[in-house]
Amino acid sequence: MNQKFLTGLLLTIFILNSGCGQDKPAADQSAAENLIAIVMSDAKPQIRKEALHRLAHGGHEEGAEAVVSATYDTSWVVRRQAIISLKYFSSRKAVMRLREMVQDSIPKIQILAIETLYRSQKEDHLATVLQFLNNEDAEIRSLAAQTFSYIAEKRFLEPLKKALQTETDPGVKTQLEKAIAFVEQLD
């Protein structure tokens, strides 16, 4: 049997045995410890990502430190899941890390942190995302426009329309049009 199959099988067995396969799993200590160990040491990014998801959605507050550590992971898949997962933790360390990432030098991380903060309703940093609509990198402008599609508040309609008027990249234009359409349909 190959390594990938065995790792997946072991994770599946673990999840089923720990109760994490249920909608609202019990926050039991051994399940949390096992998930933390997977997050911290498994070689496969997809396995670490899934363990982060289970840790966050399982009510395992004791996993906050592992999730914070995973926000530094070298794999974007793991790092992204860790950032998103932070909203499920109320520890000071988790909230402070999320706020730190709003000031990160990597715009992709800033935008994801801002979106996560907004979705958790802990803080509103959307003015920073508005600035990213003018970033020189088309991928960053597209991510910023996509963020406003999720948030969908009328107060951002005019800045989105203004950005659309000056946008030259077809992919970014598409994201802006989607965001504008989504916000306009809120009436």
Keywords:
187 residues, mainly alpha, Leucine-rich Repeat Variant, 2 domains, 0% strand, elongated, disordered N terminus
Give structural notes.
This protein has about 190 residues and is mainly alpha-helical. The chain folds into two domains: about 30-125, Leucine-rich Repeat Variant (Alpha Horseshoe), CATH 1.25.10.10; about 125-185, Leucine-rich Repeat Variant (Alpha Horseshoe), CATH 1.25.10. The chain is built from eleven helices and no strands. About 35% of the residues are buried. The model is unreliable at about 1-25 (pLDDT under 50).
- Structural category is mainly alpha
CATH level-four homologous superfamily name of the largest domain: Leucine-rich Repeat Variant
User: In one word, what is the shape?
Assistant: elongated
- Rg from Cα: 19 Å
What low-confidence regions span 5 or more consecutive residues with pLDDT below 50?
A: 1-27
Helix content: 55-70%
CATH architecture of the largest domain: Alpha Horseshoe
In short:
By secondary structure, the protein is mainly alpha-helical. The protein has helices spanning 3-18, 29-41, 45-57, 64-70, 76-85, 92-102, 107-120, 126-132, 138-151, 157-166, 170-184. The protein has two domains: 31-123, Leucine-rich Repeat Variant, CATH 1.25.10.10; 125-187, Leucine-rich Repeat Variant, CATH 1.25.10.10.
Outline the fold blueprint.
Elements: H1 3-18, H2 29-41, H3 45-57, H4 64-70, H5 76-85, H6 92-102, H7 107-120, H8 126-132, H9 138-151, H10 157-166, H11 170-184
Helix pairs in contact: 2-3, 3-5, 4-5, 5-7, 6-7, 7-8, 7-9, 9-11, 10-11
